[in-house]
Design a protein that fits this description.
Largest sheet: 6 strands, mixed
Mean pLDDT: 90
Helix content: 40-55%
Structural class: alpha/beta
Number of strands: 14
Number of helices: 19
Strand order of the largest sheet: 1-2-4-3-5-6
Radius of gyration: 25 Å
Number of domains: 3
CATH class of the largest domain: Mainly Alpha
Distance between the termini: 66 Å
Length: 556
Amino acid sequence: MAFFNSRETLVDDMLSALLQTTRLEQLATSEGTSVLVRAGHSREDGQVAVISGGGSGHEPAHAGFIGSGMLTAAVPGALFSSPPVSAVLEAIRSVTGPAGCLLVIKNYTGDRLNFGLAAEQARQEGLDVETVLVADDVALPDIDQPRGLAGTVLVHKAAGHLAASGASLSEVAELARRTAESLSTLGLALRPARLPGDEGDPSRGSELGLGIHNEPGADSVEVTGAADAVATVLDGLRPDDVDAGSGLVVLLNDLGGCSPQEGLVLAHEVMRQIGPQRIVRFIGPVRAMTSLDMHGFSVTLAPADARLVEALDAATDAPGWTAAVEPMPPRRRSGDAERAWTSSEADSEAGSGAPMRASEDGRPEAATAQACRVLGEAQEHLDALDRATGDADAGTTFRAGAMSVSTLLEDGHLGFADPAAGMARIARTLETGMGGSSGVLLAILATASSRTLDDGAGWAEALEAGIEAVSHHGGAVEGDRTMLDALIPAQRVLAEGGTVQQVAEAAEEGARRTAQLQAKAGRAAHVPDAAARDTEDPGAVAVAMLFRAVSDSLGT
């Protein structure tokens, strides 16, 4: 039993209370999604806008950190789910003026992709947008994509303070990235979160290294009390390695289910075990980034960089922020009562449903139609490949994307008289009609390619820009067993002047090589290597099929 009305109304009920008790405004969006903005904000105030967001269930993050010297806007999603691309884009449009906008993104796949695609779309509309990725989790030291945890709030404060001072977007982004790279966070919980209507998994005991979406911890642990729990966390954080000689900033975060008494005891242990003389600023115990009612805590460490300390000391009216303090020795009062205390949409045509002019010879349209037919017919094969490492829906996902593009062609709503506009429309279609991470990744690819084509570049340069955007927002590189392993060799041959036949062959060879690669990004990265051995990556195979279909259609 918990004091919720229902899982379906939970987020709306919380936002209603926030809007009635804080200086926040709800943006009227085209799709009715939730975007919260600092009251009285003007795009013409000359300040960089700072936006963050993500799934709900982590309150006060993210809306609780909207305020002067912190966030300009927040985009809350459903419970433990990233907000949709459209909501992020409307938030960017609403608050971004000539000074530009910084997106602070936690390193979860949904957040990376949805915020990343929104950033690409906003740039296409002419808005100046930068992104910073927070990946402060040290629970899995060997993983290439650490999660973003409570340290994200320190990035909010650093970026928001510098933005309020009138600094440029490049300066704000540089400090945010430097802060994010300096953070280390590790959590420990006695009990996982209980979702509304769910009493939780009683078989899960104490765990070290949990995520904020109720993922199981990296290790099961047995702790005998607060001192033992803190020692376990600090052993994983290694304060001596974090301290750069200037002391430490420490954030003690309640994951949602600790009592006030537990929080104070944990704070006592954190300061005692690190040594109060080494702590320049201490924040906590505070609920900064929770996981519903998870009975646990996390500790975030960062070097006490002078610019970070300045930001932490600056005043803000953000309701969720708790002031940082400098630890001091406990004070004792003498027996004499009289004595004092003493101290011990860039292209409107591309973004609409209007008809589009076809190219003069119709060859790009015919090649696109052929690619759609091939991917549609490959559903069962791609689903079978995906069964080894995923939920066997890769073919279904690619078929949905192919059919949505095919429908545009048939209706006369897709043409390549203007290649940039055509790619932009494909991007919009894949975003809404394909679904899954693959749909967002391909939409990012098409969006960045469109923008480069619009600048007068050729197809090789456009594809290179699209690949760079996919790698940046998706976190994968060549060799990580993803669709990039087919895309990058194909682009390389195209840039060298190869024929479409040679480009297709390069993509096919890249896809074949994925059978011997270890997945390092996406869902497959969390599957035992043996499960995918000798099986090609379905995304890479789909890309190779696409290039082969284009080659067969064009004939040269």
